[in-house]
Amino acid sequence: DAKTTQPPSMDCAEGRAANLPCNHSTISGNEYVYWYRQIHSQGPQYIIHGLKNNETNEMASLIITEDRKSSTLILPHATLRDTAVYYCIVRVDQAGTALIFGKGTTLSVSS
Amino acid sequence: DTEVTQTPKHLVMGMTNKKSLKCEQHMGHRAMYWYKQKAKKPPELMFVYSYEKLSINESVPSRFSPECPNSSLLNLHLHALQPEDSALYLCASRPTQGGTYEQYFGPGTRLTVT
Q1: N or C: which end of chain A has fewer CB within 10 A?
Q2: Separation of alpha carbons A98 and A88, rounded Å
Q3: How many Cα atoms occupy the beta-carbon half-sphere of B86 within 13 Å?
């Protein structure tokens, strides 16, 4: 079972910041939070990951709460090309070698 | 080269056919994966290969047969599939050093079973 809860869908205006929440209240101390996205009919694409501290890269920022029970992915200036399904992943399979996907959030960016 | 390639992009096969899907990467990753994705659903893990050995089979029916002939190549052999096996089949790879789980995905093969 997925260990994350995400809203099924969100809308965002082009040029505005998109803030995608994720709840992971049962996260273990050594589990990372990963974000991937999947644009229609393409393979999932890695965005960012973090353990405790906030992280930023050229694509997005990841804000993790101090208790690590939730996180927010921020796309600072959303474009139409950011329309995709966004997956927050905190669990791995039992052998610890693969990502297990939950249902994700469908982000729709409109002009 | 930071790419995972998959061939073919599209495949239509009958229930009595035998076909194979191919996945290739040249990033030196020693962990490779097959996922299955039905429409409007998240990817589901099928198989995991680590150092060319099958380490996880997520209770996948025997009509799906994976093979990892070398560290760059991953195949999925298909035989006697059912229409409900129609899906997007995704291959992924991951570096085995570092301890975190950034996986690189290919574009997928869209399979239709008639």
Answers
A1: N
A2: 14
A3: 10
d(CA B64, CA A87): 27
β-pairing verdict for B18-25 and B4-7: antiparallel
Determine the 3-state secondary structure of A104 from DSSP.
Answer: coil
Enter the tokens of residue B3: 């790419």
Distance between B75 CA and the closest CA of chain A, angstroms = 17
CA torsion angle for A48, A53, A54, A57 (degrees, to 10)? -40
Q: Where are the beta strands (DSSP E) in chain A?
A: 9-13, 18-23, 33-38, 45-50, 55-56, 61-64, 70-75, 84-89, 105-110
- In angstroms, the separation between the Cα of residue B17 and the nearest Cα of chain A is 25
Contact residues, chain A, for B45 at CB < 8 Å = 93, 98-100
Q: What pLDDT is attached to residue B56?
A: 83
**Per-residue exposure over A50-82, b if at least 16 CB sit within 10 Å of its own CB, e if not:** beeeebeeeebbbbbeeebebbbbbbeebeeeb
User: Residue B10 corresponds to which tokens in the numbers above?
Assistant: 């599209």
